[in-house]
Amino acid sequence: MSESKLYWAIIDGWTMSKRSLKHIFREAESLVMAIGLPVAIMVMFVYVFGGAIQTGTDYVNYVVPGVIITCVGFGSSIIAISVTQDMVGGLFERFRSMPLLPSSLMVGHVIGGFVRNVIATTVAILVALLIGFRPDAGWLEWFGVIGVLALFMVSISWAFVVFGLLVKSVEAANALTFPMLFLPYLSSAFVPTETMPSWLHAFAENQPMTPLIETLRGLLLGTPIGSNHWLTMAWFGGLLIVSMVTATFLFKRRKSE
């Protein structure tokens, strides 16, 4: 890409990002849902189920990393719906008649989703602190938490862009996000995997959410991380690359239809 094209790609990406950022506050119900549902789940698990679940530590400390991941998942799933709305609602066709790089539409959705996730995650952590969450992390560990969450947010955002490009209706986009949102419940997010049946334990131990959650738990609470941080980078670094390549391919195919 020439220097001029790179410049305009950045300008167009920023233009679409500003559009997505404005939508965060204009469509406040999406932000409220992205914050409220994970927080409600956290409160329910801590106060309703927490006394019955033995994890070797205060349950609120155990459950917060999983709630953070659930929060990011809900916040990112909105991207799939927004991308589909833009594609089927005629907005993309309108952009094609303007001096605007069409792929900047995807970049704008990803950046908007990232900011929405940062807001929702920050609120979720503050609520967790109010109900008893007490992390042991120092500054270095908190930087590690930020880095891991940033990788997860960006990679899952691009995955949801792919979902939004795969379907041709908002309802289908909403349904397609469900399996990804359900994964944290089949991991070590809310209960130790050792308590699960053997067939489910094998899946829970070897799906991407478990090493991600164990890495965050280790950074925040000082529990053993082992190889989980490498597995996290492999899973979500790979997801980011595959999702970006797939989204680019699907976008070009939709463009030629």
From TrEMBL:
Locations listed in the record: Cell membrane; Membrane
Membrane topology: Multi-pass membrane protein
PANTHER family linked to this entry: NODULATION PROTEIN J
Domain ABC transmembrane type-2 residue range list: 29-254
Key words of the record: Cell membrane, Membrane, Transmembrane, Transmembrane helix, Transport
UniProt entry tagged with the keyword Transport: yes
Transmembrane segments: 28-50, 62-84, 105-131, 143-166, 230-251
Native source organism of the sequence: Salicibibacter cibarius
Molecular-function annotations in GO: ABC-type transporter activity
Family (UniProt): Belongs to the ABC-2 integral membrane protein family.
Pfam families named in the record: ABC2_membrane
Protein name: Transport permease protein
Superkingdom in the source lineage: Bacteria
Protein's UniProt keywords contain Cell membrane: yes
GO cellular component term of the entry, any: ATP-binding cassette (ABC) transporter complex
